[in-house]
Amino acid sequence: MAENMLEHLVMKRESKSFVDSLHAILTHTGQFQEEKYMLAGYTGMAFKLSVHKRLLPMSVTAYGQWGVAHQGGIDNLGLFTIHDGGRSRHPTFAYYQQDAVNWVRRSLDEGKGVIYWMPEFGVIYGYDDADRVFYVQDGWSKEPHIVLYDNFGLNFTGFWYCQIFGDQVQSTQQEMVLESLRLAIEDWDIPYRLLPDRDVASGRLAYEVWIEALRSGDYDASGAAYLLDSYCQSRTEIRKYLHDVRGLWTELEQAWIGYNQLAGLIQQMRELLVREENRLVLREDASKQLAYLLRLAKPLEEQAVDSFRNISAQYADRKRSTVPRWGTHSAR
To answer: What secondary structure, in 3-state letters, does the chain show?
Structure first.
């Protein structure tokens, strides 16, 4: 019976859980050497903003169909990848589950960790065939989670997802930054990423849904705090990312200035969060003030995205302007 444990692969929760997981895996394999905020920027993950109309905690990861939502950023890194997922209630789930168990084990044997929906996203970093278990890091606990092969993909959300990575081709920084800006534009402009469901709004519209929930008072308290904490972190990542790449185009300097102004608002937003019993909660009197600050933040992001549009317009975008002869959908 085989077993394998990847030493020195450590996931730490700081960003969106997908970015935290990806950074842990790629730094372990030597495929990414920069700071985590740069990974959040290149993949476009830092720019994603999704808000449930009741500010449920799932807002943070409800930024689209995961396979599609993650693919653009992974492509931008030049990584070969395989992912699978869906609903565990589907009658074919058991077959896909067993296949995934096998290719996850192969990835670990090749020295590469695996992104796994727990929820949220974590990293599979070891297995033991004798006990038929995987070992998973969630980024919070020092102790691993144990997932039986037979329980792979089963969780209270009813969704499953895992992703492995292979070799990598290199692109220039300018190419990667340009594509990340285009990913940011898409996420800002598309109001609903989970159609036909309209309970979760994205990008520009997410601000309005967020403000309305705060004004109505009909929202989930724990979700409101988690959403705000994630928002503050992601916008801080964007500011750091733009600071490091702003020399590529003059328009990025203007975008960075906007996010610098936003940083002042974020500082005020963080003061609306308090820690109680090892968890963050929104101050009882914070709703009106947070709605006001979000109203100020939205045009700053709008102006930054307009700067991204000006940069994008300078270059051909064959990925989005070329339509395959079978149309905009894959052949079936």
So the answer is: CCEEECCCCCCCCCCCHHHHHHHHHHHHHCCCCCCHHHHHHHCCHHHCCEEECCCCHHHHHCCCCHHHHHHHHHHHCCEEEEEEEEECCCCCHHHHHHHHHHHHHHHHHCCCCEEEECCCEEEEEEEECCCCEEEEECCCCCCCEEEEHHHCCCCCCCEEEEEEEEEECCCCHHHHHHHHHHHHHHHHHCCCCCCCCCCEEEHHHHHHHHHHHHHHCCCCHHHHHHHHHHHHHHHHHHHHHHHHHHHHCHHHHHHHHHHHHHHHHHHHHHCCEEEECCEEEECCCCHHHHHHHHHHHHHHHHHHHHHHHHHHCCCCCHHHHCCCCCCCCCCC
Total count of residues recorded for the chain:
332
pTM here?
Answer: 0.94
**123 strand-pairing partners:** 115, 137
Report the 3 state secondary structure along 60-87.
Answer: HHCCCCHHHHHHHHHHHCCEEEEEEEEE
pLDDT per position as a tens digit, 135-159: 999 999 989 999 999 999 999 999 9
The reported pLDDT for the residue numbered 331 is 41
**Per-residue pLDDT averaged across 43-47, rounded?**
98
- Cα angle value 204/56/159 (rounded, 5°): 100
